[in-house]
Amino acid sequence: MAKISLTLIQTFYQVARHGSFSAAARELNLSYQSAANHVRRLEQILNGRLIDSEQGAKRIALTPRGRTLYNLLHPELDIMLERLTKLIENQRSSLRIGMPQAIFFYLFPKVLSRFRQSFPELELDVYERDTVLAELVKNGSLDICISERYFGDPIVPQRLLGSYRLSLVYPRAWGPPPDQKDIPLWTRGRPFITYEPGQTLRNLSIDYLSRNGAEVHPLLSTSGSSSVKRCVENGLGFSIIPFWCIQPEDVAIESVRLSNLPEVRVYFGNAGFLQKHPMVQQLFEDCLSELVGTFLDPPRDEEFRPPAL
């Protein structure tokens, strides 16, 4: 079989997306005839019809084989082309990574120190996000995401790194820590500080505190664990945050590790077409080396963890 060029694939993709040769031609800055010729050449290479179109018709129809090919390409091709565009614009290798603010602030510098030994010249762009990571990878804005959510999206394959426990934190001036079984009752009437709406840790905390029908109304919502902890340190209220946010020098707060709250899983995800990229694989291995066993508990046998490549 002759080699298939990216130009032919891109032209077919735009024709299929827009439903016409003329719209695809405008998108790609081609003539109508060039767009039609690209598709016909791709059909010759694949030895099969991809598009049905009548002469003079404004709209085309995909054949079953054309529909299959389009579904294979969408939306992976958009992500690949977006990344190629950024690489050409920057003229420098870069890796764009998204993760919650707390993971970057408390955990990721250790990973980066190890990773940069392998790729010292690589530019790293880190986005501190929680709720939109999957969409940012799918639209080409991110290459990698480290998330406390499992997306279940084949376009963004994920591997389980491990899990961690949450801790109750409150001003030390409030007195000795309560027993774990008494915490939901102990917190009633006390000011609650937590994360912005939609964030995973906020949802887990409210579910836990609202057991037995209690109503939970946060006093303050903010973007990340460092901001939440700062408010607790200043006596504004209590919160529930990752245990690894509490440092030995945090003398103004008291903490209780919550073993009766579900563990929080941490996943490593990436754009599907980068799954075997050496930089992506190296970063995954560095995350395992630096985080699992220290900050994250390793996955148990019954937990989901796609096989390593």
Secondary structure elements and their pairing?
Blueprint: H1 6-18, H2 21-28, H3 32-46, E1 51-52, E2 61-62, H4 64-73, H5 76-90, E3 94-99, H6 101-118, E4 123-128, H7 133-138, E5 144-147, E6 158-164, E7 166-171, H8 183-187, E8 193-195, H9 200-209, E9 220-222, H10 225-233, E10 239-242, E11 253-258, E12 264-270, H11 278-291
Helix pairs in contact: 1-2, 1-3, 1-4, 2-3, 6-11
Task: Describe the 3D structure.
It contains eleven helices and twelve strands. It is α/β, with parallel strands linked by helices. The strands form four sheets. It has a five-stranded mixed sheet with strand order 4-3-5-12-6. Helix 1 packs across helix 2, helix 1 crosses helix 3 and helix 1 packs across helix 4. The longest helix has 18 residues. The relative contact order is 0.14.
Helix/strand class: alpha/beta
What fraction strand? 15-25%
Number of helices: 11
Shape label:
elongated
Oligomer: single chain
Number of strands: 12
Low-confidence stretches: 305-309
Estimate percent helicity.
25-40%
User: What would the average pLDDT be, to the nearest integer?
Assistant: 88
Strand order of the largest sheet: 4-3-5-12-6
End-to-end Cα distance: 29 Å
